[in-house]
Amino acid sequence: MTYTDYELTFPKPDLLVNRKDLDFFLFDWLKIDSKDQTSPPRSLMDKAEVSALLDKASAIAREKMVPFAAAIDENQPRLEDGNIYITPEVKEILQTLIEEDFWSLFARTGKYKGRFSEAVECALLTIFSSSEVSSVSYLGLALAAARLVDSFCSPELKEKYLQPMYDGRFFGTMVLSETEHGSTLSHIQTTADLQADGSYHIKGEKTWISAGDHDLSENNIHMVLARTPDAPEGIRGISLFLVPKFPVNDDHSLDERNGYDIVRINPKMGARSYVNNLMRFGDTSPCLGYLVGQENHGLAYMFQMMNESRISVGQGAAVTGYAGYQYSLAYAKWRVQGKSMTAGKGDPQAPIINHPDIRRMLLMQKCYVEGSMALCMYASDIHDKLLHAETDEERNNLFNYYEFLTPIVKSYPSEWSLEANKLAIQVLGGAGYVRLHPVECFYRNNRINAIHEGTHGVQAVDLLGRKIARSDGKELNILTAQIKKTCQKAEDMAEVGDLSRDLSRRLDQVLNVTEELLEINRNGNRVQFLADSTAFLDMMGHLIVGWLWLDMSVTAIQKLNGQSDDVDIDFLNGKRHACQFYFERELPKIDGWINSLLSEKSVLLDINENGF
Ligand SMILES: Cc1cc2nc3c(=O)[nH]c(=O)nc-3n(C[C@H](O)[C@H](O)[C@H](O)COP(=O)(O)OP(=O)(O)OC[C@H]3O[C@@H](n4cnc5c(N)ncnc54)[C@H](O)[C@@H]3O)c2cc1C
After folding, report:
1. How far apart are the CA of 172 and the centre of ligand 1, in A?
2. What residues does 79 pair with on adjacent strands?
3. How big is the chain by its Cα radius of gyration, in Å?
4. pLDDT digit string, tens, across residues 56-96
5. Which residue's CA lies nearest to atom 44 of ligand 1?
6. Centroid of ligand 1 to alpha carbon of 313 (angstroms)
7. What atom of ligand 1 comes closest to residue 454's alpha carbon?
8. Cα dihedral across residues 296, 298, 299, 301: positive or negative
9. Sign of the C-alpha dihedral, residues 405, 418, 172, 262?
10. Which helix (H) or strand (E) holds 440?
11. Phi and psi at residue 491, in whole multiples of 5°?
12. Does residue 221 have its Cβ closer than 6 Å to ligand 1?
């Protein structure tokens, strides 16, 4: 058999989502269809409606997305005569999502206005993003920009720009980064000069701009951070401007192209059809911009889009890891190599899933990616609850809790689902390293997630240095209460009682080290407090995902012990096994991070630059 013939016998999955997982998350675990829960009002979407949406999304993904994903990865955007052209399959996918009403669902408009569930949205994105990532990225960015316009623009600007953005006719971007100003935006150089008619002229260079130009929509609406001439220094002097590719006239027709140039397409490692640009505003002709909200409040407004995007990054990372896991699982069940350890003389070779080391890698992937998805689903559910909170106190508490969760939701999947993608390649052996299988592409696509929307290090400082420090640790109260609730449920269950006690102990460890760090902060030793903040972020992520695994395991056990005949015993036991594995192999990593957090920082600080 030639290698090509051999490869063709591998039954490639036509969809990389196990629907049982989505049903488990939504209906068994989060109980989004439960009638007895009022916050958020669960009756907004019932099980039948959600199931029909998941079916419809799966059919679109199977027919219109998966078959084109490899071509979309290969055929990179082209810059010609100042315009960017994207491979047409992306536009076809986006058009399908618009025609089939998914754009309006994600926009929360039309018949979905006021009755969407973010947890369902998260499940739908799992189906779409695991099938083709670039098209979904355009959608997510466009709608986040639309919501920014909706929240902060004047009625006049909204009248011209908002509806076409919600309808998918105009796409949007977020334009923050400059060549010399990435993680720290306080010194951005782009300027905005007021004109006699109340508009502004924007001038400056911006880089790393996703979707900076393309032929996927009628218009591109750039949300640009810039400074007015007399603005205060630092972040208090940053304003936000709406900069259209084609300004919209009073009669809603499109004017001449605005004065900015696409200097280059940044050649990316992954998600290559999701174009990324270096742009120059007002370089060759004046570039018109409109002030959003009040001058000098721009960064605060932009945080709405940044926070939303951070959650999306976590979801995208989780899904990309999940897709790699599903693919490598299918491969491990198919690929025959070597005998199982328990085989006798003369027994045939076995599929590699029989080897303990392959099982280890599959279990690690399962733990990371399903744990990441649980984290994203849980955060979506908290956001649903926040939007439907009935009192100010409840709203404030949930808002602060969601803010605390945001860097963790962004970062845990970005780190650990990427690790899962690495393991997926390993499971495939040589086949994992070549482009005949998508696992190498998943790895490339996922690598960005720990970098954009604030790097891993920036998220860590945000979590410890801002969110934990500003509340002196009070942000942990809701989390602590929820973890204790799960531990109580699990304590008397024979299957997970010991895990419950382990989690309680780990929680105490984490709370104690947090208190020690806060004491260091109170004493003004900022270096000792923050130097190992990534260890704090990683520790917190591992604790929370461990808790979610225990909570899911409790759900699985309750379902297994229930009266129903239609339970899938293997599937539910799979959740229990993964939880057990996580507690045995992953939670102990917390000890290492605690050691780092409490260590002297001399090992980080004393080495001379020339010693590296
Ligand atoms: C594919 C892609 C898409 C992007 N999309 C957009 C977009 O649409 N719009 C947009 O405006 N930007 C976008 N970005 C920019 C992205 O947000 C930045 O790359 C990111 O914020 C990091 O900034 P930087 O690249 O300048 O790295 P730097 O800020 O130079 O950071 C380099 C390293 O130093 C670390 N570091 C920096 N400061 C500190 C500190 N104070 N403490 C500890 N460590 C620190 C960082 O964690 C990182 O590891 C995109 C980038 C990429 C690659």
Report:
1. 20
2. 84
3. 25
4. 999 999 999 999 999 999 999 999 999 999 999 999 999 99
5. 457
6. 14
7. 21
8. positive
9. positive
10. helix 439-446
11. -55, -40
12. no
